[in-house]
Amino acid sequence: MTRARKAPSAAARVSLVEAIREGVGAVRTHRLRALLAGLAIAAAVATIAIVVVVLDGIERFARTSAARTFGADTFVIAKVASPGRISRQQLERKLERNPNIRRADLRVLERWASGRVVYGATVNRRVEVVAGSRSYEGASLVGATADLAEIRDLAIARGRFFTNTEELQARQVAVLGAVLVDELFPAVDPLGKTVRIAGRGFEVIGLQERQGNVGGASLDRNVWIPLPAFERAFGAPETMQLLARAPRPDEPAATQEAESRARVSMRARHQLDPGEEDDFDMLSPEASRSFVQRLSERIGMAAAPISAMALLAAIIVVANTILVSVTQRTREIGVRRAVGASRSQVLAEILAESVVISFIGGLAGVLSVYGLVELLNRTGLNLRLEIATVAWSLLAASASGLLAGWFPARYATRIVVVDALHAD
């Protein structure tokens, strides 16, 4: 009984190998025809792969940009936290209604934090930075509290960030972004050197890694100095931005609890009644991620039909190519049937030819996307062609080959042997 079961399986394997061999032979015989059909599949598969790569890149960009701009698990408190996402009327209303956020607010929040929230503050200003005979205009000067290094990853490549003692003493120390290092110190080590801002000398104590752009703004033009040193040079800022996070954000609900405490503290500070609207903005990284997530979903909604139409067009092209092949090989198919080839063998050979064409076309499409991704990454983008995307793309190509070859294969099995033998 065991041998009887194994025999058909072995025969099936032999038939499958023979069918694939015949399919490959047909492709080799009619290379130009197979090439044209394969290009259609390649274009469709490349479309699918590019859509997946771009959507994946958008999602990773959302996570990275939120972490670089605010810090992972960090939320922001500001007079207006996201002016680009509200209407002009809403912005004018917030600017008129919301009070400025000052040092006194930060001190009150720190006093009421109870060890559950860590706060930091930043203010920004465009300045010219001078080092010797070289200068850089349009640098982003950031006055910050020392606790900011605990709240977000500042990507210090060399040196260090300033300490609480240096902040309290208003020490004139600075941390430079990568662009400023390139422009001001092209041939020397910046650490320990002096840069001048608003006529004051600041010792360079730290250098940041190259971080790129977020939202069209470069993160490599920043100069970080202690907030009191900023205030000495430019006076007290009109308003500031507060950054905060839970001391242990990895604990469940810690970030949510920190946000709730910060909101309650700010409302109490501003003496808001229950039910009264907040007179400040609070923005979490989830807000940025959800915005980009909605954007990627909209792109996906538009991209899915485009990919489907491209794949359908490719299937039609391959089906037409295989049908032409079957028509031209009518006599050959009749001879094979006359000498003993079964309908299932003919069916398998035609399907194999279609799948081989589609698989090769899919492979060409994936390779073209890989080359495009590598080229774009050299310009500073961070795109990835995942193994799973490659696998699904090749699977889609093979499945398209089966669908495209089914009708021509069924047509081939219905050819009348006698008529086929008399065909030209």
Question: Short description, anyone?
Answer:
This protein is 58% helix and 16% strand. The chain is of the alpha+beta class.
Overview of the molecule:
- Strand 2 (118-131) and strand 3 (134-144) form a beta hairpin.
- Mean pLDDT is 82; it is low at 1-8.
- Helix 2 (31-69) runs antiparallel to helix 10, helix 2 (31-69) packs across helix 12 (343-377) and helix 12 runs antiparallel to helix 13.
- 33% of the residues are buried.
- The protein has helices at residues 2-29, 31-69, 88-97, 103-111, 148-151, 164-168, 178-184, 227-234, 254-269, 285-328, 330-338, 343-377, 387-413, 417-421, and strands at residues 75-78, 118-131, 134-144, 156-159, 173-176, 194-197, 200-208, 213-214, 217-218, 222-226, 241-245, 281-283.
- Strands 2-3-10-5-7-6 form a 6-stranded mixed barrel. The chain has a two-stranded antiparallel ribbon with strand order 8-9.
- It is an alpha+beta fold.
Give short descriptive properties of this protein.
2 domains, two-stranded antiparallel ribbon, alpha+beta, six-stranded mixed barrel, 14 helices, disordered N terminus
List the helices and strands and how they pair.
Layout: H1 2-29, H2 31-69, E1 75-78, H3 88-97, H4 103-111, E2 118-131, E3 134-144, H5 148-151, E4 156-159, H6 164-168, E5 173-176, H7 178-184, E6 194-197, E7 200-208, E8 213-214, E9 217-218, E10 222-226, H8 227-234, E11 241-245, H9 254-269, E12 281-283, H10 285-328, H11 330-338, H12 343-377, H13 387-413, H14 417-421
Parallel strand pairs: 3-10, 5-7
Antiparallel strand pairs: 1-11, 1-12, 2-3, 2-6, 2-11, 4-7, 5-10, 6-7, 8-9
Helix pairs in contact: 1-12, 2-10, 2-12, 2-13, 10-12, 10-13, 12-13
